[in-house]
């Protein structure tokens, strides 16, 4: 009887909730039910019954979300013994550890990803480099065993790759940060898709993660599986009108869909030739401590956020040519670092063009002494100066403040954010996500 009460659907509770709430406790409960209901409606694609792989994993299901007796926190609490041996692969394949310090191996991974990540037929194809992989996948205390793939036994050709890093994520309600595996890259050769290789790699990654006594994870994906905690949209902002037009990757249209001449478009997307903020300069090694403090304080306002140590700031945020650009604003009188912005570089190849399209992806931005719009206008100006063609940003954190104002346009590219083995019943709004999953 008690169990049945626990399983009562939120939707039924909503029907019973006819009177307006009277006490603060009742108002809180009504809000909880409203949040849960809207999350369920958003992801209601019968996820619980159609996902053969994901239903075997400790992920929140729609039915669990509606069960008011289940609390936020780990989904599976009892830690079973970790399987010692790798999962079995089909007989003509074998697992391969991908040592990204080895030039030959990191090139193989970069080539495999570049050739297979984007499906054929897309105008822009993701291009991976050794430097990017090392930045994304080798932060301090990374586990080399979390970078692995599948190769053909006979030829040793790499046909699949998965890469993750240890991450410390603060989840709403948790006073402590949670040690998680952030899975950043997963790719299976185009010709081997839908044969359960991807699922096998995720299982094997999980085994390797648990071997390090880590039981939670975080990842983002373009597909819906049970059940996202948040969904965000990428927006892009044109920087190089002429090149994008010449490459045929952009039609000369204004944000409201009207055709424009090249001159009008150039005028519309013009950015200042120099920075307007005094004290705006490239981040230096000596800024690491100040930036660690700034970013720690800033991210504490979001419900799900990365927790950066100074070593991670040094790794992820110090500028690296062709990979990550970071800028600080320094107060002329006190010499203190007050504001920060950053973007990472991602290249896309374009069919029949030799030159790639250069994207700046917004990373972390913190404005404490000026409007965020001003800081980001300087970031755009810097990106233009550094010959980026497009600036992209997801509508997470406070990015929504500047996107429309600075002429970004929403794209169809949406990503869903997931926590593995971590329940968060009401999910979070994109503007409450404080982690950028590369
Ligand atoms: C994503 C990818 C690796 C899946 O590999 P695959 O071998 O075709 O997949 P499988 O046949 O093993 O089935 C995959 C399972 O994972 C799910 N899945 C597919 N894409 C996924 C993703 N991006 N994240 C998480 N799960 C995913 C599928 O829904 C399926 O689970 P289900 O049966 O419970 O629904 C493959 O499609 C790919 O390489 N895509 C291009 C790169 C990419 O988009 N990578 C993901 C983002 S980093």
UniProtKB/TrEMBL annotation:
This is Glycylpeptide N-tetradecanoyltransferase. It comes from the Eukaryota. Keywords: Acyltransferase, Membrane, Transferase, Transmembrane, Transmembrane helix. Residues 78-231 form the Glycylpeptide N-tetradecanoyltransferase N-terminal domain. It comes from Brassica carinata (Ethiopian mustard). Residues 258-435 form the Glycylpeptide N-tetradecanoyltransferase C-terminal domain. It catalyses: N-terminal glycyl-[protein] + tetradecanoyl-CoA = N-tetradecanoylglycyl-[protein] + CoA + H(+). Residues 1-29 are annotated as: Disordered. Adds a myristoyl group to the N-terminal glycine residue of certain cellular proteins. One of its GO terms (molecular function) is glycylpeptide N-tetradecanoyltransferase activity.
């Amino acid at each position: 009887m008690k169990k049945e009460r626990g399983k009562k659907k939120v939707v039924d509770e909503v029907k019973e909730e006819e009177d307006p709430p009277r006490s603060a406790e009742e108002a809180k409960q009504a809000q909880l039910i409203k949040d849960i209901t809207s999350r369920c409606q958003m992801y209601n694609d019968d996820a619980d019954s159609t996902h053969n792989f994901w239903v075997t994993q400790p992920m929140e299901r729609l039915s669990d979300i509606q069960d008011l007796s289940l609390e936020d926190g780990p989904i599976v609490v009892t830690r079973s013994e970790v399987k010692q041996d790798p999962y079995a692969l089909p007989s003509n394949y074998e697992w391969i550890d991908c040592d990204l310090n080895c030039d030959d191996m990191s090139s193989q991974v970069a080539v495999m990803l570049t050739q297979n990540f984007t499906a054929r037929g897309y105008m822009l194809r993701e291009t991976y480099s050794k430097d990017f992989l090392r930045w994304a996948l080798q932060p301090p205390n990374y586990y080399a065993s979390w970078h692995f793939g599948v190769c053909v036994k006979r030829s040793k050709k790499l046909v699949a790759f998965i890469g993750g890093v240890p991450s410390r994520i603060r989840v709403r309600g948790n006073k402590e940060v949670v040690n998680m595996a952030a899975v950043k890259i997963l790719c299976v050769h185009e010709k081997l898709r839908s044969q359960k290789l991807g699922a096998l790699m995720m299982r094997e990654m999980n085994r390797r993660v648990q071997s390090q006594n880590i039981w939670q994870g975080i990842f983002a994906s373009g597909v819906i599986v049970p059940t996202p905690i948040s969904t965000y949209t990428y927006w892009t902002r044109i920087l190089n009108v002429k090149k994008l037009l010449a490459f045929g990757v952009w039609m000369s249209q204004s944000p409201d869909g009207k055709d424009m001449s090249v001159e009008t478009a150039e005028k519309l997307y013009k950015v200042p030739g120099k920075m307007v903020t005094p004290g705006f300069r490239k981040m230096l090694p000596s800024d690491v401590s100040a930036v660690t403090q700034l970013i720690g304080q800033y991210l504490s306002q979001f419900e799900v956020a990365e927790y950066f140590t100074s070593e991670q700031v040094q790794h992820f945020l110090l500028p690296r040519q062709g990979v990550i650009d970071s800028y600080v604003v320094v107060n002329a009188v006190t010499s203190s670092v007050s504001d920060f912005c950053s973007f990472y570089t991602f290249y896309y190849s374009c069919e029949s063009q030799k030159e790639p399209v250069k994207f700046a992806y917004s990373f972390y931005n913190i404005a404490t002494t000026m409007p965020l719009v001003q800081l980001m206008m300087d970031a755009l100006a810097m990106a233009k100066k550094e010959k980026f063609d497009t600036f992209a940003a997801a509508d997470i954190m406070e990015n929504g403040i500047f996107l429309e104002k600075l002429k970004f346009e929403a794209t169809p590219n949406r990503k869903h954010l997931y926590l593995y083995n971590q329940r968060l019943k009401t999910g979070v709004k994109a503007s409450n996500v404080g982690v950028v999953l590369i």
